[in-house]
Amino acid sequence: MQETFTEDQLQFREVVRKFLHDKSPMSAVRQLQETESGYDAEVWRSLGQDLGLPGTHLPEAYGGLGYGPIELGIILEEMGRTLYGGPFLSSAVLAGYATSLFAEEASRQVLIPDISSGILRVALVLDSLSCPELVGKTLTVDAADRLTGRAEIVIDALSADELHVIADSPNGLGLYRVSPSAEEVTLYARESIDLTRKLSSVLFDHAPVERLGQVDAGGLQRFWDLACVALSHEMIGGAGALLESTVEYTKIRVQFGRPIGSFQALKHRCADLLMALEFAKAATYQAAFSLAVDDNPGFVASMAKAMASDCFMETARAAIQLRGGLGFTWEDDTHLFFKRAKCDEVLLGLPHVHRERMIQQMEGNDRAA
Amino acid sequence: MQETFTEDQLQFREVVRKFLHDKSPMSAVRQLQETESGYDAEVWRSLGQDLGLPGTHLPEAYGGLGYGPIELGIILEEMGRTLYGGPFLSSAVLAGYATSLFAEEASRQVLIPDISSGILRVALVLDSLSCPELVGKTLTVDAADRLTGRAEIVIDALSADELHVIADSPNGLGLYRVSPSAEEVTLYARESIDLTRKLSSVLFDHAPVERLGQVDAGGLQRFWDLACVALSHEMIGGAGALLESTVEYTKIRVQFGRPIGSFQALKHRCADLLMALEFAKAATYQAAFSLAVDDNPGFVASMAKAMASDCFMETARAAIQLRGGLGFTWEDDTHLFFKRAKCDEVLLGLPHVHRERMIQQMEGNDRAA
Amino acid sequence: MIVQLNEIETAVNQFLDQAFSPDLSLIEWRQRLVAAGWAAPSWPEDCFGRGFTAEQTAVVDRVFKTRRIVGAAQVGPRRLAAETLLVHGSVDQKNRYLPSILTGEHSWCQLFSEPGSGSDLAGAATKAERSGDQWIVNGQKVWNTSAHHADFGILVARTDWDLPKHQGLSYFLIDMRQPGVEVRPLKQMNGHASFNEVFLTDAVVRQDDLVGGEGHGWAVATTTLSIERQGFARGRNPRATHSAPAQGRVYDEEAKELEIDNEPYTWYPQREGRPDLVFERARETGAISDAAVRQEMAKLVCLSEAAKISARFVAAHRKLGNGEVLPAGSIGKLGASVIARQAAQVHTMISGTDAMLSGSGSPMDGVIAETLISVPAISIAGGTDEIQRNIIAERVLGMPKEQRQDTGPFRDIPRNIS
Amino acid sequence: MIVQLNEIETAVNQFLDQAFSPDLSLIEWRQRLVAAGWAAPSWPEDCFGRGFTAEQTAVVDRVFKTRRIVGAAQVGPRRLAAETLLVHGSVDQKNRYLPSILTGEHSWCQLFSEPGSGSDLAGAATKAERSGDQWIVNGQKVWNTSAHHADFGILVARTDWDLPKHQGLSYFLIDMRQPGVEVRPLKQMNGHASFNEVFLTDAVVRQDDLVGGEGHGWAVATTTLSIERQGFARGRNPRATHSAPAQGRVYDEEAKELEIDNEPYTWYPQREGRPDLVFERARETGAISDAAVRQEMAKLVCLSEAAKISARFVAAHRKLGNGEVLPAGSIGKLGASVIARQAAQVHTMISGTDAMLSGSGSPMDGVIAETLISVPAISIAGGTDEIQRNIIAERVLGMPKEQRQDTGPFRDIPRNIS
Q1: Which of A166, C37, C389, D346 could bridge to B268 as Cys pair (CB 3.0-4.6 Å)?
Q2: Distance CA A280, CA A285 (A)
Q3: Alpha helices by DSSP H, D212-328
Q4: Cα-flanking dihedrals φ and ψ of residue B201, to 5°?
Q5: pLDDT (tens digit, 9 = 90+) per residue, D180-214?
Q6: For an interface test with A, which of D281, D385, D392, D394 has the most A Cβ atoms less than 10 Å from its Cβ?
Q7: Which residues in chain C have their CB less than 8 angstroms from residue B274's CB?
Q8: First CA to last CA across chain C, in angstroms?
Q9: Which helix (H) or strand (E) holds A356?
């Protein structure tokens, strides 16, 4: 297992960071959050066709870059730092992983190249974003291959080229492809706390589907772990950027004749946040290293998700507090991170749910040993 | 229901405080913790025969003072402040409440006068100090009125004149009287973290008993609530004394050319502790006021126990930390409070157990409404 | 003088029988109230009141409430202005301003905070310069609730730059309806714009609108802040305690007034974390069956119940004339922050992924979402948690102050230039 | 020079084949080790070592471990003394002291803290006065592990009272076996007496036992403290990594040495909270079925696992020569405190009322009780949590320092007179 980042990975991070710095500044994020799609098509094109980022973690045989959770994590951490709002999490991470794990050979050959280049934007429709055990409880495909049911929260569905749906069926859980423009499909926008990530609800009323492949419980759990670790990277990226900007603010903001960063209570709070961040980063990187070699993945994925969630929220709370009234204004950027933190915290399972799972995994390992 | 302390109650507090200040200084506590009985017989005599404190909450008709949980709480809060180590909690509170709630008329007439005057020191033997639901699961009286079983932790049993035991029997749960010198009774001292409160284990092997009365589930719960609220007073007393001494220490201890109490991190920690103390006191006093009129007793008792436990432990941790190395020495008094806090925290149920009970009570009230 | 509680009840009822009619205009009715001394009976007798104790006042309030009578205007910063004037105002100022505050004819705003002086309120750099019998004011204020419709403002401005910071401030009453005052709404992270920025450009204040004398502004402001903090601590939103569902002109006009006055405060319950909704939500969603959620719920209940009990104890002490035996304002305010934060986390646990949603169709039609993005305000507004902890440590516990770095002439103290 | 890893392995094995015998006395054997440069291969070549990298040193360690060979003496403050001398010692000092540290002939103690200078180590008021080619030392030290059997001490004392506090300190090596040095054991709240108080009354130090020059004591002490902190951060108890179960005189003598050297540290695992015992205890007691306990257990596992991973990352970075990219020592030390506190609370929840008991018959025969009353030490010893947070904020995050109130001549700085 990797012990630290390789030279190549460090360089890769620089490339991604520079790209996002140039192409996704906070001014663009603010502008795009007011749009329906939430992203800039040209930046997405460049990110996909010039850099191939959406295929980073997808198999080379199908046109991905053939890297793994570590490199994907690097991208997401950098995206988290800048609150990049394009359909990367939805199409590349969620749908990309689902396709490569569940779709059959023929479909993979068709879909992965286009997902990798970003030409195809897929929204993955799950009827639960809380835990894998609830997936497929409300979306069902009947014997005539018609999909019915409702997914309350779907990321980036309104701007997607197609919908991939995990649904139950007479043949068990499967991954299905649905056209968002089918008349049996109703999509409507949902207002989200986090305006930089677009949500919608999707209703299917006997919508025609194409079955892409079988979804078994183990595979679904593997999918969930990979998604959690990817999301954890986004969160530590956000927390890291926010802690840096907050510390900088305390150095320049003067009250009572001194920079507020010289007040011990603020120093100690920032020190605690740094420790929480270092620990959350350690857990998240370790999770990526472990998932890359399949070592104890459920435990480390849940640990990363729990720690990164708590760290990001705690940092976001402090980032507003330490800015005082300014941090509560719309004009300041801090609230954008706060809202992302709140949504990431609940997405794919709350910290306490993942903590419970950690203990279950420890019990499992213990029984196995 | 009372809204605040009456003038009489405030005066009563002063009397108790002065008595303990004079008769139970920290030097005496330190000396007595090295003895087997853990208390000073002369102080106990005076406290019982001169002031009648052990009978404060016991019915006047049987020689008690006829007050209630409020006045008893005042005594325990003051005892908590000085870590008074005599058999007050064991004999007056636990055995006193058990006798007055469960013993039959004839036994009450015999026992309560002597418990109230302190002439009789009773240790109440319970086979669980964690929760009332477990009481009577291991101690049983057979049809021939013989008691068998083991109580792992009993307070002040080695110095008690007699043992009162709650045990199961063919006639249901009952309160029994046993002589500690009976040959079927084995008592041995247990080492406690808190040397100011003496613990022992008690084994019964077909020991002859005298049945004092019936114990029903509701009564046992009432007993537990009363005991929890009494103990909560002891804890807020300890926390209050400790916070005061800690704040005083930060005012005189100089490091870096300034009193350490001028460092903002220490100030803020003390401010948080004061808030926790005010809240724990509010909960505890309210619990006493409520129990005095039987208003929602389970909910408020559990709330008091949970809050007072957390407050005392948190204050004790801070009290050592803010004294630095000195706080970790045997010579300094802080550790005596820390150890009391740790033992009080688990005695009669941990905070999380009481929190769970609070929600159960809310569900119950809600269903009842 | 009427002092017995039953006499008071009789007197109020007699007055109301004679004077009240639902067909009066709101102002007319309140003018009668003021004239008769029933608008603010706890105020001194020489200030439109009757010098009543809290207990006596409660009798009056009860009668008003029972009979659904419209009382004096209360909502918003006008209460801060009025109570400050009661302490520090001149007789002339009281006579000029208090009646129209009680009748609601004039609304007020507070002009204290500045972009460069938030926690450090005494660092205000808005300049007031004497010019004949006027003061000319220049500077920028921020976080000014209701400034956009206020008639007057309570203003802290610097009148001497060579004195130490606390000594160079003066406290003014400023007419907001003048060309030198520009008010711009300030949008917050929760989408509301309850506050404003106020730009003062050669704004004019009359010499006799200086409160407490030149250079005594900090002492006067401290009174206002302490009144404000007590409001926070009691969890009292500046909302009317009785809305008036009854029929008649006076009720209609009061409803309109309340709608305007309350508008900035619609999200205030949410910034307190809505602990009141937790139990119901937990049952509805089934989250109450999750032991981890129950623990966090119970921690919340502990805090919020204890805060209420603690406030009751303080009130009971005060009633007994025992004075402020228990430390009150700042502990209550700090407690409100802790409660709000815990409540937001519990609501998050209860809502699960639905916590991402806001607006219609989201949990409780957006109330939960608004709560999650409003709680950060409670630990900032009215003095940050950090300031409250300093106050508790220094004033209640008597811990030593830090050496100040902002002594000496104000003009030499480092500050952010906005 | 041997540098390739496989060459190193061969060379060590050759040396051991020739030189090692279990029948040697411990000192004889280690003298051979020192002479051959294998006692401390990471030390410089001119200081009894071979200038090996961490990777190279690991090869040597592995061979020793595999073959169960007794290595150099490590335990206790002697390591702090040795590593400090490597940086700041004169050639003469290194030659005089390092060999007997490696052989274990001499043991050491640290004489830094004083009753009046705990967190504020630079506030030391123990006085050293020059008298010919000697220094006469008077004062009191405290928290001196192993002082009761130490041959030498590293001592910080004040040599100039007119300079600012950091500039008036000097760093000495003091012979503990002299009449002017009195050592008294200091009992802690957990009943152990691992530390001592040391009273210095006209104790004598040779001029050539001054380290780093007069007035440079703080710089030298900082090196010692940083070495100490790293030990904490790595969770490394100063225990031997391999005990020696093999037969022979050298093993017997090492076992005796370890028993003495480790004696003060028997409770050190307990002050770290024993997170390693939590899972086992939770299963044994059945507490693992309590959802609230599981949450707290998981929080503990998160912290303790992340701390381990984080330490591994730092080590991996260092190995790659990437320098200290991640902030290390103080974060690790602060983390250790948080972990210990959480572990103690989890153990309390798991043990229930049995947490009251200690000694034999109590949970894990007293280990849990000792844990509960030992964890308060972890956040104090080796620099309090507060000091670590200051270091992290100022040195890692670059936040501005507070204005100092202890500048100017030391004699004028307020302090507690002990």
Answers
A1: C389
A2: 9
A3: 217-233, 249-262, 268-271, 278-285, 291-319
A4: -105, 150
A5: 999 999 999 999 999 999 999 999 999 999 999 99
A6: D392
A7: 327, 331, 392, 396-397
A8: 55
A9: helix A351-368
Of D228, D257, D296, D370, which one is the catalytic site residue?
D228
- Contacting chains of A (3 CB pairs or more, <8 Å) are B, C, D
Assess whether pLDDT exceeds 90 at residue B294: no
Please give the average per-residue pLDDT across B99-105, as a whole number: 97
For chain C, the C-alpha Rg in angstroms (whole number) is 23
Domain boundaries, chain C: 78-234, 272-396
pLDDT band at B198 (very low <50, low <70, confident <90, very high): very high
Please give the Cα distance from D394 to D379 (Å, whole number).
19
Task: Give the torsion through C-alpha atoms of B217, B221, B224, B226, to 10 deg.
Answer: -130
- Chain C residues lying within 8 Å of D292, measured CB to CB: 291-292, 295
Tell me which of C114, C228, C272, C296 is the catalytic residue. C228
Is domain D78-234 classified as CATH 1.10.10.10?
no
pLDDT recorded at residue D239: 36
Q: Does domain C272-396 have CATH number 1.10.10.10?
A: no
Judged by average pLDDT, the poorest of A217-221, C77-81, D241-245, D359-363 is: D241-245
Per-residue model confidence as pLDDT tens digits over D59-85? 999 999 999 999 999 878 899 999 999
Domains C78-234 and C272-396 share a fold: no
Residue B161 is given by DSSP the state S
The DSSP annotation for A157-225 comes to -TT-SEEEEEEB-TTSSEEEEE-TTSTTEEEEEE-BS-TTS-EEEEEEEEEE-EEEEE--HHHHHHHHH
Q: Cα separation of A291 and A215, whole Å? A: 19
Q: Is B343 helix (H, G, I), strand (E, B) or coil?
A: helix
Q: Which amino acid is at D13?
A: N
> Which is nearest to B303 in space by CA: B254, B360, B246?
B360
Rounded to whole angstroms, how far apart are CA atoms B253 and B269?
16
Interior CA angle at D269 toward D266 and D275, to 5°?
A: 155
ipTM of the complex: 0.95
- Per-residue pLDDT at D240: 41
**At residue A28, what is the residue type?**
A
Mark B336-353 as b/e (b = at least 16 C-beta within 10 Å).
Answer: bbbbbbbbbbbbbbbbbb
- D164 has a pLDDT exceeding 90: yes
> Which residues on chain B are in Cβ contact (under 8 Å) with D186?
329
**Which of C81, C90, C108 shows the shortest CA–CA distance to C207?**
C90
**Measured torsion, CA atoms of residues C291, C295, C301, C302, in degrees rounded to the nearest 10:** 150
Structure-token match 């605690």, residue found = A272
Say yes or no to pLDDT of D233 above 70.
no
Measured between CA atoms, how close is C206 to chain B, in angstroms? Answer: 42
pLDDT cut 70: percent of chain B above it: 99
φ, ψ of residue A84 in degrees (nearest 5): -55, 135
CB-CB contact of B142 with B185 (8 Å): no
> Token pair of D275, please?
């997170």
pLDDT band at B282 (very low <50, low <70, confident <90, very high): very high
Cross-strand bridge partners of residue C294: none
pLDDT less than 70: residues of chain C:
1-2, 232-245, 319-328, 418
Average pLDDT of chain B to the nearest whole number: 96
Contact A343 C413 (CB under 8 A): no
In a mutational test of the B interface, the residue from A255, A260, A264, A267 whose CB has the highest number of chain B CBs within 10 Å is A264
How many CA atoms are closer than 13 Å to the CA of C383, on its beta-carbon side?
25
- Give the closest-approach CA distance of C400 to chain D in angstroms: 14
